[in-house]
Amino acid sequence: TRNREKRFGMVVELISVGTELLLGNIVNTNAAYLAEKCAGLGLSCYYQTVVGDNSGRLAGTIRTALERADLVILTGGLGPTQDDLTKETAAGVWNRQLAMDPHSLERIETYFRERGLEMTENNKKQALVPEGAIVVDNDNGTAPGIIMEKEGKRMILLPGPPNELKPMFENSIAPFLTGLENPDAPGIIFSKTVKICGMGESKVESQITDLEALANPTVAPYAKTGEVHLRVTARAEDEKEAKKLVKPVVKELKSRFGSAVYTTEEDVTLEKAVVDLLLANELTVSTIESCTGGMLAARLINIPGVSEVFKTGYITYSNKAKRKIAGVKKGTLDKFGAVSPQTAKEMARGTALLTKADVTFSITGIAGPDGGTAEKPVGLIYMGCYVCGTTHVKEFHFSGNRAKIRETAVSAALTMMRQCILEYYSQKTFGKKV
After folding, report:
1. Neighbouring-strand partners of residue 70
2. 194 has which bridge partners?
């Protein structure tokens, strides 16, 4: 069984406030973000709740959360309107009065003045703070964060907009949580994430069952689209000791998964790893896509510095475009069809000839929901990767709706491109970086 619940003593519960979340008008990305961050801090999260803008139901939800958690994090409902009730309700649960905080009021007034905006009277509501609370400045909006403490329990109130919540959590709340004294364990937590591509979660987990049984550090898998992340978390008296506990486990994971591990750095994405590999080997790249419609090129272009290696990207959705741009033969399309290994290969090689890129990548397939046959079902994708004269073609079968198939295909394409470059240089002896 997974070891996600075997943490270090402190239990956190997440409450997301907002009727728009209940109605599905807004996707609750805050809960996913906070759950992952809390896990990285070594906190146990057993419950998440979404509640609408109703003071009575919210108060009941808070009371239930406080009965089973040491820490309750609430998001949303800190705005200036009448239906923003989180702060008032949380204060009421602990019988705290609200008072105007001059520091917060000054920051709100400055926020409006610097932007040349009129500050309406109801904005002052955001500067009301429960008595005895710690105020957390909001550098990206008007509503400050709130930390309330009572008899060993804590409530943390965060603004709902992700561009306000995330920097506030990372810059202020995470350091606060890290510094809390925990009677059950020493106080320093350190995490390292081993990121793996090209393997499914079940396959990865089957190879780490012994490591998941560890108590300190813990090893927990998290599935991403086309990836699996393994977070190794240790608690110790100080950071040096925590790192010492994490290091051999990370080393063992690298040994077990080999080149499938593309990074252990938190801020390195799969596309960044691919771009870094291209930069390190001084390789240029071009893409040619059909069913993914430029999504592969977009992922690569998201990375700063990619202009040093990215030459061009084509979207050849029609057979005519495949022939005109990539030089795919009419006979190939007539005999094998647009969705075939032969077409994928000619798309990659033709793009290499056209753009003179060292690496080219082609994608052609059926994303659905229509267009599939028994012979070529929806989700069938062929990809071609040309690296310095050598072309590899691979067949994939993806499931899900159109958006999911396209997204999964792009992640698989990044993995395949990386693998092809690594394999090419593993056969060389002239010292290129891999």
Report:
1. none
2. 230
Question: CA 25 to CA 409: how far, in whole Å?
Answer: 28
Distance CA 303, CA 324 (A): 30
CA 46 to chain centre: 20
How high is the mean pLDDT in each 10-residue block of the chain (434 residues)? 46 96 94 90 90 97 97 96 94 97 94 92 94 94 95 96 93 84 57 92 93 89 90 83 94 97 94 97 97 98 97 98 98 98 98 98 96 95 97 96 96 97 75 38
Which single residue is written with the structure tokens 């500050």? 119
Alpha-carbon gap, residue 227 to 277, rounded angstroms: 18
In the block, which residue shows the tokens 């030459």? 311
Do the Cβ atoms of 154 and 147 come closer than 8 Å?
Answer: yes
Which amino acid makes up residue 152?
Answer: G
Burial readout 404-422 (b: 16 or more C-beta within 10 A, e: otherwise): ebbbbbbbbbbbbbbbbbe
DSSP secondary structure, 66-101, as one string:
HHH-SEEEEES--SSSTT--HHHHHHHHTTPPEEE-
Q: Which residues contact 376 (CB under 8 A, 6 or more apart)?
A: 337, 339, 366
| CB contact set of 137 (below 8 Å; sequence gap of 6+) | 104, 107, 144, 145, 172
Q: Is 382 left (phi over 0), alpha (psi -120 to 50) or beta?
A: beta
Task: For residue 392, list its beta bridge partners.
Answer: 385
